[in-house]
Specification:
The protein is of the alpha+beta class. It contains ten helices and eight strands. Strands 1, 2, 3, 4, 5, 6, 7 and 8 form an eight-stranded mixed sheet that branches. InterPro entries: Acyl-CoA_Oxase/DH_mid-dom, Acyl-CoA_Oxase/DH_mid-dom_sf, AcylCo_DH-like_C, AcylCo_DH/oxidase_C, AcylCoA_DH/ox_N, AcylCoA_DH/ox_N_sf, AcylCoA_DH/oxidase_NM_dom_sf.
Length: 392
Amino acid sequence: MVTYSDPSDRFIRNEREASIAARADRLAAIFAERAPKHDLEGAFPFENFDDLRDSGYLALTVPRAYGGEEASIYELVLSQERLARGDGSTALAIGWHIGLLKQLHLSGACPEELFRELCREVVQDGLILNELASERATGSPSRGGKPQTKAEKVDGGWLISGQKSFCTLSPILRKFIISATMTDSDTVGSFLIEAGEGVQILETWNTLGMRSTGSHDIVMDGVFVPDRHLIRGGANSQLRKPVPTDGNMLHIPACYLGIAHGARDFAIAFAAKHKPNSLQVPIAELPHIQRQIGEMELDLITARTYLYHTAERWDKEVEHRAELKTELGVAKYIATNAAVRIVDQAMRIVGGLSLSRSFPLERMYRDVRAGLHNPPMDDVVITNLANRALGR
């Protein structure tokens, strides 16, 4: 049985963080019980998001002025890592919501009145948000592809047409932000869309891992967006002095490291009690099993230390956030690659039984590999490091 609460965790530094971690632990334990069924069916876990609403988790990064907890990036990482120990799909999905709210708060790109309305809906009505940027033709937006989704200027607003992919949370998105090429200026803008007429979900999500994120395609056909729902665009003067917001993306490595932590916990618990009839002691007493456990610990300690250190620097070094972008990429690289190794090692410890759907490891093995395909990609991180070393 996987355990969640760990009061000795050295990354919990005060009572507020302990409370945030405890809530995530409680939810993780509940979600872990439901995860096998959702994974098997590829079904969206609606009940998990009901629990997230009821617990107040949706408002984790909403500013205090608007009724939220205004979590720091460090607190976001802490909460997400622990939530993912129970169910990676749910943690990754809600990570985009709380990360987006943090991004909008930091950037100031969203008109203040509109941002206040969205926050109020999150706190009072349980609104869940995501920003949809990926498209089949452009690949990852982090590589600079221009969206084929078009925004045509009309009287009082815009008409949006196009198709977005990897639309995580699509089954419960009543509102979402999309990127589109503005036909009047050929620049890229972001718009708040309301689900309804002209918006259709294509159920395309049938994957090896992260099967319960609901990351289907969304098609928009002539959807009207009023001018006040322009989040950012060529005419938005708030973007002339961009504010670094990349820290919110640490929710990604936090999630995958959390999955690995869950796999590690399961493997250690298994090793401590599993005693084949060929042995007089549990397998945890065997030197090669202890070596494998030690290697898991080495990866986990190294990755967590760098991840939390980077999050803490982001929170504290406000004037140097632009220079921390490379470190954010390194944190993602270290955490996700370590997570893959940890889960693999956990399966080696458990042996052939790890392939059974009766155990969570085979799901964790599939889920954790998805981290390699979330931004920033490994090759981008390595290239950025090389360029920095070369003084470019």
